[in-house]
């Protein structure tokens, strides 16, 4: 089995007071994976690296600032932002202009791969998974989990338009931020926007499940109560929102197909965002500060981001990932 090279990651951007939180989250995941009934195949690919990761949180920032590092990660195909479609450039700039004290990191295709090689090793499971997923969207699903696990911060899809500064609505005690997926009945967590502390164990579980799917060319099932909906939900079980819903439940020690336990998540320093979908139009789909799992047309709280800018589908190139999934061409031969 491929192994990641040892990581020596200094977390200079974390406050001294959260060392205990990191350790507790990490120990919790080890206990969780060893006690909960997880399929053996997933256990075989879990790489917790408990002896390889050295975390130094002693030189942190002041504890009155959000525990999540002030870094914004975004990615798309071109190596330079100057080569992006004009409307996408405008969308990315909303994250820069509204968060001037944040570091904004843009990665093109080559840079996205290189960061995995640099931190995990060229022959690692992480690089193998990234390179052997065919749809670009699936590659970036996995990549966002990995880059947030390495560095922490916020990931946002390149087509998202930020409406309010992050500091105005991100909870200062949050260790993980993610929206509900807009599906009915409610299941899954949208991976279009994620905030996390570095080394959050939920991200490691997500990475290992995707690695398993890639190595075994496995097309996971969707929860039974969703199976009567159209086939599109199964597309997101390989690496996206349905997989993240399963990951979330495993981390919370809940049955894999159970409705998400949002009160428990909040107790564990999660901030769960809402997803308001008034219509199929991009301008009518927003992230909200309050979750409304029973009715996605109910917009609760502050409207903080537009899901995607108008005209995104015209800017998108290549074979749609839904087509590749239908043709069973998600994994490279």
From TrEMBL:
<protein>
    <recommendedName>
        <fullName>Alpha 1,4-glycosyltransferase domain-containing protein</fullName>
    </recommendedName>
</protein>
<keyword id="KW-1133">Transmembrane helix</keyword>
<dbReference type="GO" id="GO:0000009">
    <property type="term" value="F:alpha-1,6-mannosyltransferase activity"/>
</dbReference>
<dbReference type="InterPro" id="IPR029044">
    <property type="entry name" value="Nucleotide-diphossugar_trans"/>
</dbReference>
<dbReference type="GO" id="GO:0000136">
    <property type="term" value="C:mannan polymerase complex"/>
</dbReference>
<keyword id="KW-0812">Transmembrane</keyword>
<feature type="transmembrane region" description="Helical">
    <location>
        <begin position="12"/>
        <end position="33"/>
    </location>
</feature>
<keyword id="KW-0472">Membrane</keyword>
<dbReference type="InterPro" id="IPR039367">
    <property type="entry name" value="Och1-like"/>
</dbReference>
<dbReference type="InterPro" id="IPR007577">
    <property type="entry name" value="GlycoTrfase_DXD_sugar-bd_CS"/>
</dbReference>
<dbReference type="GO" id="GO:0006487">
    <property type="term" value="P:protein N-linked glycosylation"/>
</dbReference>
<dbReference type="Pfam" id="PF04488">
    <property type="entry name" value="Gly_transf_sug"/>
</dbReference>
């Amino acid at each position: 089995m491929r192994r990641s090279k040892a990581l020596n990651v200094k977390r200079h951007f974390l406050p001294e007071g959260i060392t205990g939180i990191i350790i507790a989250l990490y120990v919790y995941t080890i206990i969780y994976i060893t006690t909960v009934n997880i399929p053996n195949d997933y256990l075989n690919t879990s790489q917790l690296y408990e002896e390889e990761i050295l975390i130094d949180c002693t030189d942190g920032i002041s504890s009155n600032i959000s525990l999540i590092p002030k870094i914004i990660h975004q990615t798309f195909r071109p190596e330079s932002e100057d080569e992006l479609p004009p409307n996408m450039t405008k969308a990315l700039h909303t994250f820069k202009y509204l968060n001037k004290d944040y570091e904004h990191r843009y990665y093109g295709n080559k840079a996205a791969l290189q960061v995995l090689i640099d931190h995990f090793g060229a022959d690692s499971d992480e690089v193998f998974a990234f390179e052997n997923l065919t749809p670009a969207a699936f590659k970036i699903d996995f990549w966002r989990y990995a880059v947030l696990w390495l560095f922490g911060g916020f990931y946002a899809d390149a087509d998202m338009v930020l409406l309010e500064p992050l500091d105005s609505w991100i909870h200062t005690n949050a260790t993980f931020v993610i929206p509900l997926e807009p599906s009915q009945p409610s299941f899954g967590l949208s991976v279009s926007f994620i905030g996390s502390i570095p080394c959050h164990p939920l991200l490691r579980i997500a990475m290992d499940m995707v690695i398993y799917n890639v190595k075994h060319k496995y097309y996971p099932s969707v929860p039974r109560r969703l199976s009567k909906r159209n086939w599109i939900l199964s597309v997101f079980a390989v690496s996206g929102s349905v997989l993240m819903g399963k990951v979330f439940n495993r981390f919370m020690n809940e049955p894999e197909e159970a409705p998400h336990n949002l009160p428990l998540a909040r107790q564990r320093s999660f901030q769960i965002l809402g997803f308001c979908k008034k219509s199929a139009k991009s301008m009518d789909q927003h992230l909200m500060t309050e979750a409304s799992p029973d009715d996605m047309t109910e917009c609760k709280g502050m409207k903080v981001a537009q899901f995607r800018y108008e005209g995104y589908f015209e800017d998108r190139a290549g074979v749609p990932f839904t087509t590749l999934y239908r043709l069973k061409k998600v994994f490279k031969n």
